[in-house]
# Entry
Amino acid sequence: MTNLSHPTPVARAVGASGPNTLERHSAEVLKVSTRSRPSAVAGAIAGVIRDSGMAEVQSIGAGATNQAIKAVAIARSYLVEEGIDIVCTPSFIDVAIDEEERTAIRLLVERR
Amino acid sequence: MTNLSHPTPVARAVGASGPNTLERHSAEVLKVSTRSRPSAVAGAIAGVIRDSGMAEVQSIGAGATNQAIKAVAIARSYLVEEGIDIVCTPSFIDVAIDEEERTAIRLLVERR
# Structure
């Protein structure tokens, strides 16, 4: 699990392997914050996709989700040069931060 | 072209059929603003996917992009009940608003 957010509390995924989540493979989880640099997150996504074919990006709030989706767009441009075509599937996921439940956006990124 | 934003200026897509854009089919363009209701946008996405198999969602700024990605997540939940599995591919696109060029996020939504 790679944390790309800066000095934010450690988030623990709740229900990530629960009955409502279709985990076809385990995917590395990249946590993105408002202050994450999209190009840095993109590099991380591209690396995980090259290694395992699948990455999971999590964000909480509009600013972080915007950085996350920009990162996926940039990762696409990196990988398309290598002949790798990625798609993403967004969903909602409940995560616990400081014992409080928050709704995060989960972008599952995988080869088409 | 359906405009789901409220009293915002009319956006005109620039370069949407330019040489850098891979348009495999023409997709209906849904413009999302910060004030768009994600469930309403989701219904529109689901309708366009049912009709044509492909929808394009455009947003400018973090708030609008957050609404757009939430809409895709909700549309996924609507369509999965009908056995339709959608994925999205984000990219950047330049759009002209009031003769000023802005960078929008373009989510191409299509059946897997």
Summary: The longest helix of chain B spans residues 62-80. Chain B has one domain: 9-111. The domain at 9-111 of chain B is CATH 3.30.110.20 (Translation Initiation Factor IF3). The interface with chain A takes residues 61-63, 65-66, 69-70, 72-73, 76-77, 86-92, 105, 107, 112 of chain B (CB under 8 Å).
